[in-house]
């Protein structure tokens, strides 16, 4: 028996449906409004007060897959340069009756660092520019005035950004709020006051500010999620993600509809959130660059557990699992050995339902049979997802690591 209060994915979907019907009822013009429209065409431009009062502001349309594709960037080459240090100043204090007041040139301020900072609101590297120049430090001034330090320049990057210089990995920004100093600001120069010594009471020396550090970094995004959805094209990965989460990847009856990874969050009643990543479909021979190749598999490298989605509507569906595992192994050894569960989709189709016992027999294990389209048996998947998540949390804590939190 499955406790119905454990998760809230279906009620949410139903609530959305209720919202839609309420909205539809409101925008239908009332009879008085129709009368007005028929009576005088000139009144058409004047909206009915009754209707406008209840009309809701137009909702923001979700981005289509095509637009997301334009905006989704998962690697970037960036030139970063720290701010230049301010120059030290050489000058002497002088006032009436104190003609030789000594050196009073202040130091220049330090140049500002350029810092990469993880921001959960940022979903891709598309907002990252190709070059960044940090803020310069201010020059020193008279009367021992020190220049102001350059402010830190923050570059906002998504969770899961890998920072590389050449082949060396410098940082792995996998948690919200993580920061990495990409380029250090130059130090400020010294004013002549700094060089005052017993044997030199009137130094004229001052030093210029140092240029900031400059380097070329390669940023690579590896999506961070708890579960990775792996399956052949058209298996229904995006449909399933839409059914269990608030993500809205495009769904269509042709292969390779999804070209970029999408992350959806499954909300449970105990406020637990599990992130599920839908990645483009894999086909046989993907490791030889067939289909979309395997480059996008980096997006499931960070998923501690996997959901293998098998399409029951095609003959011999069990071969899909072997092929998927093989391709994953080709990409990264051990990837297919992560904790996983097999999900058999499209159970609503009669021929698919008939293949289920055969699939179970071939796999030698239970597969979760469901329908992403009708929502049948989604509860079992949600429970299994929670189990996998709890297991992941327990093993991470056992090994003294912090489990991934969303
Ligand atoms: N009958 C039935 N059709 C489904 C079900 N799930 C998905 N489909 C259909 O299968 C087709 C492919 O669905 P998608 O969700 O786009 O499949 P995908 O795995 O994301 O495909 P790619 O993005 O190309 O890899 C669509 O026409 C869906 O309507 C299901 O449970 N039952
Ligand atoms: Mg898809």
The description of the largest β-sheet is: 6 strands, mixed
CATH superfamily of the largest domain: P-loop containing nucleotide triphosphate hydrolases
Q: What share of residues is helical? A: 10-25%
Termini separation = 29 Å
Our estimate of the beta-strand percent is 15-25%
Please name the CATH architecture of the largest domain.
3-Layer(aba) Sandwich
Q: Which residue ranges are poorly predicted, with pLDDT under 50 across at least 5 consecutive positions?
A: 1-49
Overall shape: it is: elongated
Radius of gyration: 31 Å
Question: What's the order of the H and E elements?
Answer: HHHHEEEEEEEEEHEEEHEHEH
The tally of domains stands at 2
Mean pLDDT: 81
Structure, described:
InterPro entries: G_OBG, GTP-bd, GTP-bd_Obg/CgtA, GTP1_OBG_dom, GTP1_OBG_dom_sf, OBG_GTPase, P-loop_NTPase. Plays a role in the regulation of the mitochondrial ribosome assembly and of translational activity. Displays GTPase activity. Involved in the ribosome maturation process. It is found in: Mitochondrion inner membrane. Belongs to the TRAFAC class OBG-HflX-like GTPase superfamily. OBG GTPase family. Associates with the mitochondrial ribosome large subunit; the association occurs in a GTP-dependent manner. This protein is an alpha/beta fold and 406 residues long. The chain has 2 domains: 74-221, Spo0b-associated Gtp-binding Protein, Chain: A, CATH 2.70.210; 227-398, Rossmann fold (3-Layer(aba) Sandwich). Helices cover 24% and strands 19% of the residues. It has 8 helices and 14 strands. It has helices at residues 9-27, 31-39, 49-54, 65-71, 237-244, 318-331, 350-363, 378-398; strands at 75-81, 114-118, 131-133, 153-157, 161-165, 168-173, 179-183, 214-221, 227-231, 262-267, 273-278, 305-311, 340-345, 368-369. Strands 10-11-9-12-13-14 form a 6-stranded mixed beta sheet, sandwiched between helices. The chain has a 5-stranded mixed beta sheet with strand order 3-1-8-5-6, with no helix packed on it. Strand 5 (161-165) and strand 6 (168-173) form a beta hairpin. It is elongated. Mean pLDDT is 81; it is low at 1-49. Magnesium ion (MG) is lined by residues 237-238, 249, 257-258.
């Amino acid at each position: 028996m499955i406790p119905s209060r454990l998760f809230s994915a279906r009620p949410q979907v139903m609530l959305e449906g209720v919202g839609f019907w309420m909205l539809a009822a409101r925008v239908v013009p009332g009879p008085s409004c129709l009368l007005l429209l028929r009576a005088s065409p000139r009144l058409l431009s004047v909206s009915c007060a009754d209707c406008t009062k209840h009309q809701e502001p137009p909702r923001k349309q979700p981005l289509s897959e095509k637009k997301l594709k334009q905006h989704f960037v998962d690697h970037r080459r960036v030139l970063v340069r720290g701010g230049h240090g301010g120059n030290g100043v050489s000058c002497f204090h002088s006032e009436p009756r104190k003609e030789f007041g000594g050196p009073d040139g202040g130091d220049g301020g330090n140049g500002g660092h350029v810092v990469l900072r993880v921001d959960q609101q940022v979903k891709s590297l598309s907002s990252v520019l190709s070059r960044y120049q940090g803020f310069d430090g201010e020059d020193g001034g008279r009367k021992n005035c020190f220049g102001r330090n350059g402010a830190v320049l923050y570059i906002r990057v998504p969770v899961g950004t890998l920072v590389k210089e050449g082949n060396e990995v410098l940082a792995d920004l996998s948690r919200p709020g993580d920061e990495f100093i990409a380029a250090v600001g130059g130090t400020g120069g010294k004013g002549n006051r700094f060089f005052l010594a017993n044997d030199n009471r009137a130094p004229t020396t001052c030093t210029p500010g140092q240029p900031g550090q400059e380097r070329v970094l390669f940023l690579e995004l590896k999506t961070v999620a708890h579960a990775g959805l792996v399956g052949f094209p058209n298996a229904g990965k995006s449909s399933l993600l839409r059914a269990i989460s608030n993500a809205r990847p495009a769904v269509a009856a042709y292969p390779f509809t999804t070209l970029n990874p999408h992350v959806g969050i499954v909300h449970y009643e105990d406020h637990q959130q599990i992130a599920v990543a839908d990645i483009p479909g894999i086909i046989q021979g993907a490791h030889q660059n067939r289909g979309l190749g395997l480059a996008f598999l980096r997006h499931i490298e960070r998923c501690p557990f996997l959901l293998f989605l098998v399409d029951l509507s095609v003959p011999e569906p069990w071969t899909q699992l072997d092929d998927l595992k093989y391709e994953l192994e080709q990409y990264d050894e051990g990837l297919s050995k992560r904790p996983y569960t097999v999900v058999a989709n499209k159970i609503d189709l009669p021929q698919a339902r008939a293949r289920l016992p055969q699939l179970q027999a071939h796999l030698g294990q239970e597969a979760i049979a469901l329908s992403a389209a009708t929502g049948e048996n989604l509860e079992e998947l949600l429970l299994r997802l929670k189990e996998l998540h709890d297991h992941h949390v327990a093993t991470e804590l056992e090994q003294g690591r912090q489990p991934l939190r969303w």
